[in-house]
Design goal:
By secondary structure, this protein is of the alpha+beta class. It is built from 6 helices and 4 strands, in the order βαβααββααα.
C-alpha cells in the first residue's frame, strides 16, 4: 500500500507539465507526481479517459479527486499558507466557481502560456502516449 498520495497529470501537455513543475518548486508537495503516460493507472484505480480529462489526486487509500479538487488537495498537502486556499476551494460556492474556471482552462490549455497545439489533440492522436505495461 502506498504511504503518499499521487498527483497524475498529462505529460504530453506543455501547459500541464509547466504547471506541475511550478507546483513542485513553489509548493514542495509531499506527494508522488507522475504523468499519466507513465503511471500504472490500473493499480491507481484510474481510467485513461479520466486521466486525459483532468488532473488527478489519488490518496494512499485509493480515493480519487479530480480537477479543481485535485488542485485543492495539492494545496492542502503543501501546508503552510497554501492550505488555506486549498480548504477554500472545497467550500461552496467557491468550489462551483473554481470548477468552472478549471474546466475553462483545461478545455483551452493549448491556448494557455506554455501550451502547444499538441495539448489540444486527443491522446490517441499524440505520439508516445501509451506507457509500457498500460492496460485499458
Amino acid at each position: 500500500m502506498r504511504t503518499r498520495p499521487v498527483l497524475i497529470y498529462d505529460g504530453d501537455c506543455a501547459f500541464c507539465t509547466s504547471s506541475v513543475r511550478f507546483a513542485e518548486r513553489r509548493l514542495r508537495p509531499r506527494c508522488e507526481i507522475s504523468p499519466w503516460q507513465f503511471a500504472d493507472l490500473g493499480v491507481l484505480g484510474v481510467t485513461q479517459e479520466r486521466a486525459e480529462y483532468e488532473l488527478l489526486w489519488v490518496t494512499p487509500a485509493g480515493t480519487v479527486h479530480g480537477g479543481v479538487q485535485a488542485v485543492a488537495r495539492l494545496l492542502r498537502d503543501a501546508g503552510r499558507g497554501w492550505a488555506v486556499p486549498g480548504v477554500l476551494l472545497c467550500l461552496p460556492p467557491l468550489r462551483w466557481v473554481a470548477h468552472g474556471v478549471y474546466r475553462l482552462v483545461a478545455n483551452n490549455r493549448e491556448r494557455m502560456p506554455g501550451g502547444t497545439p499538441a495539448c489540444a489533440l486527443p491522446a490517441d492522436r499524440r505520439s508516445g502516449t501509451r506507457a509500457p505495461g498500460h492496460t485499458e
